[in-house]
């Protein structure tokens, strides 16, 4: 029985003590006055009566009622029912608190609060103060409280004739039962009657309608998320304007949590004064008035539920884990069926008559039933995971969380994990774990209804029926007597609060009330306590648990077969059949990934222990340990599947004898697993064992008694520990005191003995075999974390600083400082403390344990020392012998093999991935460090793979990152130190060192590697140390009296350069500022020397050529032989001699101004500059550009004569300065002006050097972009650009022509922000065609600028147009070197991940590839290059001026030349291109490749590799245009970082000369040494093998390539992804080729007829070698046959040429294509001849833009016809091979070669059918050397003999053929044949 009400309180409004704004509550009276002993008076009631604060009101409000809840210190809840009504303020009371009206202000004016006159009795100034009646109770009978307080208020208001004291007295003395379903009628003595029903079961919460209301207000999803939030201990805050709703919502949420009890802060109504409680760190459920919403919004981690608005706001930082599926969705659908039954019927054609909706109270119970079912499903089988640790005197129960999660299959589930770790669940276990107690609805449900719930899962109607049944029971519990509940209580009349109250609420007589209370108390003492005996029973356990979702064991579907393999292997081991076991072992290790196999292993081993087979020999021991390690490595720290628990007894059982008296147990070999250092694991194990022993304790006792009835004993054994405990608890009260004591002691000693046993076990598994090692520290985070946040174990024994040092990456610790024993002792002591206090071990015993633990540990360390000593003496297991790698000539081993395991690195193929094939990795072998490479050689650990050698290597120079790692060795599963080395050749060595490799050896390896990777000086690199004359450090010997040697020469050169460079800044002052008049005008034509503004020459920088010293002359001659010079001469850009004599005919000349590298160190010695510019002016121009890299010509288009220039970006002055608004004059202005004027003149000179544009009708105006491919996005020139010859035309054209597509240079474009014009073209705005070909090509305009300057957008900001400039700026946005570096890092990670991908399949690779943005950069480069190609092709020159002019500029310029000039697509040409643009023009290979120690910080930036990738992309799109194969690009990609050759060392020619590298190739060829130059090597290799040759090479003459550049058209280069584990990277040909005679060839020819089949494994074999293409195969075959016949084999190239020729002849007679047509260009014709004809507006001329039209198509109709014919002839050549030809006329003619080439006799064939003139070397030659397309011929005219022509021939035998591109000079043998030729050609032209 309990009191209905503990206290009755009357609280009224009182002034605030500090006279502040609000009032405060004052307790006027409380009854009883003194506290009850069992229940003190709760503090702070006055705050809770008016939660929004005590305030006066200008009008009477109706009375309000709500129930607040206070929780006391013992977490008892007190319900405070508050009924508030308002009374007029007494004048005396009003005083300082008359807040609300305006009176407050006046009062202040009148001089103080006391000076107020009494308010007028009239209503306007009347204020009302609140007064509250409060009932405090521990029972939750809201309706009874409402009625009782209502009655008191009614008596007061209505003035009933009833003593209030009596009513209050009766209220306080009313006693009602707590539970049990009784009902009680009470009366307070005012003619009232109330019936109180108590619930049937005390444990079920009472919710009335609160749950249903909560769902109505917030909806299903919101309530579910609040439910999950409350369970996972988040903070929940309810907001509402109604207090009653707040209490209801909180009550409802708590009711949903049943059977768990909410144990954190619970305040349904929080007063305003206590709002700071909301910032408490602990979880809570709190309700607050919506008026304080603003305060709630500042809280960052609180989930706010707004009841009035129906919203739940979850902050970003809070993650509420959802219920595990499928429970989440099932619960959701059942809730919607309960709340909205109409939903199911909404779509029916004939809906049934409306269903009866259950009442709100019933709906409330249905909703609760849904959640009750949910908990039953979640916690199903929880009783099977309870550990009974003690039974007497009180039961102690522990819950095995890991086992529960493991068996439910919910280890990963965030929600359940958090619930089980929460306080509520701990309370649940201690309350419901007890085996013998009263049971309730939940116990029944979880034990008996699980099967039914499982069966109903998919039948919503059956689920609903079950929910309704449960709801009935819940309803019955709350309302056991539904019919009788009749109340009769008086209520006040309507609007009674508005009537003027007769008087304030009277003061009650305390004495009278107290007397009534005392009398009742006296009565109660006499009466016996009416306690209804609780019915206690054994709690049913229910069926064992099952997984929530039956996870289909897809991976281990064939588990029966796997278990069979495990069993067989174990039986082989124990039967001693080691070979059989060895074969099965890999399969077993793979099977042990599955749970079933691990359990099976534990059971099998257990059986062998039982058969006392625990002592093993060495091999058996090894096998058993390996299998155990494999099992344990997949165990998490929780060990949720109980594998570690099953193995724990076994690791202390299996052992081997090392020597007499020394036994090694298995535990010393399986310590490296995280599970052993997890305290939770040990606790669960300990409690499990204690339970077993305690159960045995009582069962044995029972068996002793029942020994006579032997038949029953086994049956009893079936009982679980909980059943035993329940039985014991039932008997406990019946036992005598002595018996009770005896049982308690027995249990306590059982626990104590187990604690000792576990202290031993833990020391076994925590102390390492070699206790001197500190390994434990690094690898056992668990041990340390308990002690401190750092990972160290020594925090307690040492200063914190030492502790921190263990965290650092270095990973080295001092052996002395680690106190392993101390750490283990502390770990065990903490464990012992925890379990013993929880399981009630006496303190004496506990002290004893603490004394024992150090001794146990010390003893164990001593035994281990002996074991460690003996185990060292074991004969080592035969390890595979180390395979020595093959080395290059000159490569030396620096460190001999260190034994390592090579681990899989995330490339799936090596580990037997999707490509099939064996698991080549992990492999066991050794790593070697040589002067050139890091090499791993070894064999796969998987015995099924067989004797395959695995090689992985990369050049030391390519190393980009090394990091220490800790990894498990694949064989013993031990944790070992490892290294991960990543290289920029896309190799990754992820190695674990073998145990035999000491940490010092590993460290030595790292240091040596570092030394080789970053030599202090470039002379230390492999290419320079290899066979070099002088070792670094020794001065080179001077060679005397032999004329200046190249070394001295280069030294002089450098000296001079240094001098001049030092001087060049001194002379600056001489410049005089130019006069302003000259600034804007174009310089007059005839001015001899336009550029030099100051007249005096500077002798320091320019010596006249006549005065060159002999050494300088020698330098000159060697400079002339450089690649650049050869190329300039080929392009007709001038010869050195002509430049010295200043011949005027050529527009450009070669200037030796930089031969001393004085002007620009990073430029070559000879540069092409405009003829009109004097050398001394160049010095000044160079100052406007970064790094002094002023614009020089690097290529000229043979057809449009446009030139391509390159330079560094501009300094702030310069062209940009020209265009910018004039700044205020600054101190150094004159210099700046002179420089920028020089620069302007220089650009003007470039423009003037270009062929003049013709007038509008001329050919060049529309020479346009011969490509549909470029589309409307190509910049058409701005209207203002003038043709140079006619300045007046500019204004005219400005009037007529519309604005060009370039718009304003300032406008910014989209992606990459090129200016909108070019920008839009580059960014691909507008509707491009498929493939990235842009949209409409109708962009041609009559004029365009003569020179476009492509510059960095950032650099060209604020440029304003200037009408007189003939150049135009194209601002584009380019990426910087650091972006290339960052992108490459990500690309490396994507292609060689380093660890296996989390999600298999290509998706993750593609995602990381996209993240790297590498392809986007390639796309941008190609895009810019194609733009430049277009501009050049249209006859405009282009200056590329980006960054410092040596990274992106080089990339763009090289790509442009490659696309525009077919010569660069040959092997020779590509070499020239790289030598010229990359080496001579100073791309900083050493800096970008981080070749030396100095460059280490800057890291590797693969600018050149990116260029090669672009070339590879073009090669893919035009496979027939390149003479070299894709392998050639990979080869360069590998060797430009390998430092094997000297070619790619250093940053510029200047540095190469300084080191004496540049010219020694000619001078000192001493011995046939290793190739120093990569080109030499390629040349030698090409003679032997066609590996660099592209068989599909069939170029179209003078084809300009325009590749698609969209990312969708780009492919990932296989250089990044492929590898060959059989021999390492295939780019060091000597190594890749195997022994001279490859064994593959020998095998078939050996004596025995062997099969010729070979298995080719992806990733292992080199596919091109194992399976060469048809042509290589035939060439090999020919060589083999020739050697068999004893002939010297001929070179492959000769054979190839012969075959091609024969092929042509064969094809002749029938004219049809033979199989040989595979050699002819027939494949990419869809790209080559897409003829596109466009109507050009009103003129009606057809513009032909065929992709291959080489001639510039004019605007005249005839030229378009020609173009049409040209493309038809191309189409024609698709179907007819070039060999089956019509020879209309043929004979010998002399032809003059290109510029500077001699006359040669050739065999010419005129082909009328194909409309071309072809020539051959001689009559029998079948390979055509060149073609002149007659469509391009403009005229045939008599010629004059030129230099070097045949002397004997008549002058009239010369004639010229003029084509659109060049003039061919011919000479026939005599005059008649010349005439004949001219006639034939003319007739061909006229036929056309």
From TrEMBL:
Keyword Cytoplasm: yes
Compartments (UniProt record): Cytoplasm
InterPro entries hit by this protein: cDENN_dom, dDENN_dom, DENN_C, GRAM, Myotubularin, Myotubularin-like_Pase_dom, PH-like_dom_sf, PH_domain
Highest taxon of source: Eukaryota
Region (Disordered): 92-123, 1026-1051, 1068-1113, 1286-1315, 1626-1653, 1744-1773
Biased composition annotated in UniProt, kind: Low complexity: 1744-1769
UniProt cross-references to Gene3D superfamilies, sorted A to Z: 3.30.450.200, 3.40.50.11500, Pleckstrin-homology domain (PH domain)/Phosphotyrosine-binding domain (PTB)
Main location: cytoplasm
Keywords of the record: Cytoplasm, Guanine-nucleotide releasing factor
Family: Belongs to the protein-tyrosine phosphatase family. Non-receptor class myotubularin subfamily.
PANTHER family: MYOTUBULARIN-RELATED (PTHR10807), MYOTUBULARIN-RELATED PROTEIN 5 (PTHR10807:SF43)
Name of this chain's protein: Myotubularin-related protein 5
Biological classification of the source: Eukaryota, Metazoa, Chordata, Craniata, Vertebrata
């Amino acid at each position: 029985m309990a009191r209905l009400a503990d206290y009755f309180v009357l609280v009224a409004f009182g002034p605030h003590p500090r006279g502040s704004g609000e009032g405060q509550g004052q307790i006027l009276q409380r009854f009883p006055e003194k506290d009850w002993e069992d229940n003190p008076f709760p503090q702070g009631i006055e705050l809770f009566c008016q939660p929004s604060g005590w305030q006066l009101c200008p009008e009477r409000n109706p009375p309000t009622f709500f129930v607040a809840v206070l929780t006391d210190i013992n977490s008892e809840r007190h319900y405070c029912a508050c009924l508030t009504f308002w009374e007029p303020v007494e004048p005396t009371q009003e005083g300082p608190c008359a807040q609300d009206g305006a009176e407050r202000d006046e009062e202040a004016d009148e001089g103080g609060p006391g000076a107020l006159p009494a308010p007028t009795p009239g209503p306007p100034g009347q204020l009302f103060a609140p007064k509250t009646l409060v009932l405090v109770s521990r029972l939750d009978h809201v309706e009874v409280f409402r009625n009782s307080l209502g009655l008191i208020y009614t008596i007061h208001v209505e003035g009933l004739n009833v003593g209030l004291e009596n009513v209050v007295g009766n209220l306080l003395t009313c006693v009602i039962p707590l539970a049990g379903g009784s009902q009680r009628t009470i009366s307070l003595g005012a003619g009232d009657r109330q019936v109180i029903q108590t619930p049937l079961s005390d444990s079920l919460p009472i919710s009335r309608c609160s749950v249903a209301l909560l769902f109505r207000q917030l909806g299903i999803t919101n309530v579910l998320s609040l439910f999950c939030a409350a369970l996972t201990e988040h903070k929940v805050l309810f907001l509402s304007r109604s207090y009653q709703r707040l209490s209801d919502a909180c009550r409802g949420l708590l009711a949903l949590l049943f059977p768990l009890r909410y144990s954190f802060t619970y305040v349904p109504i929080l007063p305003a004064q206590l709002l700071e409680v909301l910032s408490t760190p602990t979880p809570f459920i709190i309700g607050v008035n919506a008026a304080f919403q603003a305060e709630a919004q500042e809280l960052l981690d609180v989930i706010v539920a707004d009841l009035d608005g129906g919203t739940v706001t979850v902050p970003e930082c809070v993650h509420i884990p959802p219920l595990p599926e499928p429970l989440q969705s099932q619960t959701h659908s059942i809730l919607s069926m309960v709340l909205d039954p109409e939903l199911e019927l909404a779509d029916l054609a004939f809906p049934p008559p409306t269903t009866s909706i259950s009442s709100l109270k019933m709906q409330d119970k249905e909703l609760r039933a849904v959640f009750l079912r949910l908990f039953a499903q979640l916690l199903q089988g929880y009783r099977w995971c309870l550990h009974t640790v003690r039974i007497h005197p009180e039961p102690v129960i522990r819950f095995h969380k890991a086992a529960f999660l493991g068996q439910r299959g919910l280890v990963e589930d965030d929600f359940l994990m958090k619930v089980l770790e929460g306080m509520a669940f701990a309370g649940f276990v201690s309350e419901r774990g007890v085996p013998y107690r009263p049971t309730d609805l939940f116990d029944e449900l979880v034990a008996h209804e699980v099967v039914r719930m499982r069966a109903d899962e998919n039948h919503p109607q059956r689920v609903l029926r079950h929910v309704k049944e449960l709801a009935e029971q819940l309803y019955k519990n709350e309302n056991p007597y539904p019919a009788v509940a009749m109340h009769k209580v008086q209520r006040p009349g309507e609007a009674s609060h508005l009537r003027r109250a007769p008087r304030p609420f009277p003061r009650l007589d305390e004495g009278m009330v107290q007397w009534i209370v005392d009398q009742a108390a006296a009565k109660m003492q006499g009466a016996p306590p009416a306690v209804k005996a609780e019915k206690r029973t054994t709690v049913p356990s229910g069926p064992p648990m099952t997984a929530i979702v039956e996870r289909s064991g897809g991976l281990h579907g064939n588990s029966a077969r796997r278990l069979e393999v495990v069993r067989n292997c174990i039986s082989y081991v124990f039967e001693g059949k080691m070979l059989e076991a060895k074969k099965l072992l890999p399969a077993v290790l793979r099977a042990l990934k599955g749970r079933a196999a691990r359990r099976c292993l534990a059971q099998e081993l257990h059986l062998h222990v039982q058969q006392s087979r625990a002592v093993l020999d060495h091999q058996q021991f090894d096998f058993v340990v390996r299998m155990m390690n494999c099992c344990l490595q997949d165990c998490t720290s929780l060990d949720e599947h109980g594998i570690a628990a099953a193995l724990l007894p076994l690791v202390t059982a299996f052992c081997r004898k090392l020597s007499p008296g020394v036994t090694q147990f298995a535990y010393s070999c399986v310590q490296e697993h995280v599970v052993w250092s997890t305290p939770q694991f040990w606790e669960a194990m300990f409690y499990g064992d204690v339970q077993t022993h305690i159960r045995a304790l009582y069962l044995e006792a029972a068996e002793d008694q029942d020994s006579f009835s032997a038949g029953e004993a086994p049956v009893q054994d079936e009982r679980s520990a909980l059943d035993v405990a329940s039985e014991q608890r039932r008997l406990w009260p019946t036992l005598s005191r002595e018996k009770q004591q005896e049982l308690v002691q027995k249990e306590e000693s059982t626990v104590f003995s187990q604690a000792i046993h576990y202290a031993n076990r833990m020391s076994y598994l925590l102390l390492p075999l070699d206790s001197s090692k500190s390994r434990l520290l690094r690898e056992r985070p668990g041990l340390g974390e308990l002690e401190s946040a750092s990972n160290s174990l020594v925090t307690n024994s040492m200063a914190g600083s030492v502790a921190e040092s263990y965290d650092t990456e270095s990973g080295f610790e001092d052996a002395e400082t680690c106190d392993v024993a101390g750490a283990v002792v502390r770990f065990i002591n903490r464990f012992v403390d925890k379990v013993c206090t929880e399981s009630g071990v006496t303190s004496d015993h506990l002290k004893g344990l603490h004394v024992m633990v150090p001794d146990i540990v010390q003893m164990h360390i001593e035994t281990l020392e002996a074991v460690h000593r003996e185990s060292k003496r074991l004969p080592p297991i035969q390890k595979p012998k180390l395979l020595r790698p093959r080395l290059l000539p000159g490569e030396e081993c620096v460190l001999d093999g260190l034994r390592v395991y090579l681990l899989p690195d995330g490339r799936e193929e090596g580990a037997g991935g999707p490509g099939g094939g064996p698991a080549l990795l992990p492999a066991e072998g050794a790593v070697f460090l040589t002067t050139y490479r890091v090499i791993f050689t070894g064999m796969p650990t998987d015995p099924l793979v067989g004797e395959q050698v695995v090689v992985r290597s990369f050049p030391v120079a390519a190393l980009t990152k090394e990091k220490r790692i800790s990894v498990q060795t694949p064989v013993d599963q031990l944790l070992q130190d490892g290294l991960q080395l990543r290289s920029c050749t896309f190799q990754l060595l992820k190695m674990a060192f073998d145990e035999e490799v000491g940490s010092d050896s590993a460290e030595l390896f790292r240091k040596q590697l570092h030394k080789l990777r970053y030599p202090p000086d470039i002379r230390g690199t492999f290419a320079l140390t290899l066979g070099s004359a002088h070792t670094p450090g020794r001065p080179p010997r001077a060679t005397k009296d032999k004329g200046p040697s190249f070394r001295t020469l280069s030294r002089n050169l450098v000296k001079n350069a240094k001098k001049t460079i030092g001087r060049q800044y001194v002379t600056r002052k001489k410049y005089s500022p130019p006069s302003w008049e000259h600034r804007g005008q174009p310089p007059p034509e005839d001015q001899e020397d336009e550029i030099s503004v100051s007249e005096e020459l500077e002798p320091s920088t320019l010596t006249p050529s006549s005065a060159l010293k002999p050494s300088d002359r020698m330098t000159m001659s060697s400079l002339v032989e450089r690649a650049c010079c050869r190329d300039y001469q080929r392009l007709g850009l001038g010869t050195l001699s002509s430049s010295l004599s200043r011949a005027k005919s050529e527009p450009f000349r070669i200037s030796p101004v930089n031969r001393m590298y004085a002007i620009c160190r990073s430029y070559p010695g000879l540069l092409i500059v405009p003829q009109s510019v004097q050398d001394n002016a160049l010095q000044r121009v160079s100052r406007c550009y970064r790094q002094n890299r002023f614009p020089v010509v690097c290529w000229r288009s043979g057809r449009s004569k446009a030139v391509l220039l390159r330079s560094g970006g501009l300094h702030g002055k310069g062209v940009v300065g020209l265009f910018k608004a004039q700044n205020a004059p600054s101190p150094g202005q004159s210099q700046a002006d002179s420089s920028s004027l020089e620069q302007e003149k220089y650009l003007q000179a470039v423009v003037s050097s270009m062929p003049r544009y013709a007038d509008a009708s001329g050919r060049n105006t529309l020479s346009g972009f011969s490509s549909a491919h470029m589309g409307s996005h190509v910049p058409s020139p701005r209207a203002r650009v003038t043709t140079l010859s006619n300045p007046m035309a500019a204004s005219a054209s400005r009037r007529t022509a519309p604005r060009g597509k370039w718009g304003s240079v300032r406008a910014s474009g989209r992606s990459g922000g090129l200016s909108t014009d070019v920008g839009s073209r580059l960014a691909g705005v507008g509707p491009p065609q498929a493939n990235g070909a842009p949209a409409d090509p109708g962009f041609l305009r009559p004029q365009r600028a003569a020179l476009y300057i492509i510059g960095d957008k950032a650099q060209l900001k604020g440029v304003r147009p200037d009408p007189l400039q003939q150049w135009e700026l194209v601002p584009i946005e380019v990426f910087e070197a650091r972006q290339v570096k960052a992108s490459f890092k990500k690309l490396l990670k994507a292609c060689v991940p380093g660890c296996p991908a989390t999600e298999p399949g290509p998706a993750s690779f593609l995602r990381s590839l996209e993240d790297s943005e590498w392809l986007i950069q390639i796309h941008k480069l190609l895009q810019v290059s194609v733009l430049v190609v277009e501009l050049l092709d249209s006859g405009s020159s282009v200056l590329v001026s980006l960054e410092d002019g040596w990274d992106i500029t080089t990339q763009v310029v090289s790509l442009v030349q490659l696309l525009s000039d077919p010569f660069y697509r040959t092997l020779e040409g590509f070499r020239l291109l790289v030598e010229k643009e990359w080496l001579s023009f100073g791309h900083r290979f050493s800096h970008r490749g981080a070749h030396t120690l100095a460059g280490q910080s800057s890291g590797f930036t693969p600018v050149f590799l990116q260029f090669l990738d672009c070339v590879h992309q073009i090669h893919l799109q035009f496979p027939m245009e390149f003479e070299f194969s894709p392998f050639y690009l990979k080869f360069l990609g590998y060797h430009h970082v390998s430092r094997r050759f000297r070619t790619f060392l250093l940053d510029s020619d200047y540095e190469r000369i300084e080191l004496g590298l540049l010219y020694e190739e000619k001078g000192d060829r001493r011995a046939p040494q290793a190739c120093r130059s990569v080109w030499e090597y390629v040349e030698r290799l090409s003679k032997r093998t066609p590996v660099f040759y592209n068989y599909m090479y069939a170029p179209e003459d003078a084809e300009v390539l325009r590749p698609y550049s969209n990312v969708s058209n780009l492919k990932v280069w296989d250089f990044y992804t492929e590898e060959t584990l059989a021999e390492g990277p295939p780019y060091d040909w000597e190594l890749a080729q195997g022994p001279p005679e490859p064994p593959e060839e020998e095998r078939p020819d050996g004596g025995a007829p062997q099969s010729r089949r070979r298995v080719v494994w992806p990733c292992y074999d080199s596919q091109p070698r194992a399976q060469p293409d048809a042509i290589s195969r035939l060439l090999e075959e020919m060589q083999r046959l020739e050697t068999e016949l004893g002939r010297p084999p001929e070179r492959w190239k000769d054979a190839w040429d012969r075959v091609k020729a024969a092929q042509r002849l064969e094809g002749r007679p029938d004219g049809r294509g033979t199989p040989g047509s595979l050699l002819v260009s027939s494949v990419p014709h869809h790209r080559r001849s897409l003829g596109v004809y466009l109507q050009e507006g009103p003129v009606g001329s057809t513009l032909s833009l065929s992709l291959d039209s080489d001639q510039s198509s004019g605007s005249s109709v005839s030229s378009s016809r020609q173009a049409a014919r040209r493309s038809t002839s191309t189409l024609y050549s698709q179907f007819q091979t070039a060999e089956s030809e019509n020879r209309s006329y043929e004979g010998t003619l002399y032809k003059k070669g290109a510029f500077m080439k001699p006359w040669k006799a050739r065999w010419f064939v005129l082909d009328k059918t194909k409309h071309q003139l072809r020539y051959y070397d001689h009559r029998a030659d079948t390979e055509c050397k060149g073609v002149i397309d007659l469509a391009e011929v403009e005229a045939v005219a008599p010629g004059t003999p030129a230099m070097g022509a045949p002397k004997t021939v008549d002058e009239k035998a010369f004639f010229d053929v003029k084509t659109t591109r060049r003039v061919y000079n011919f000479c026939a043998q005599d005059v008649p044949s010349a005439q004949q030729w001219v006639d034939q050609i003319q007739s061909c032209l006229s036929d056309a």
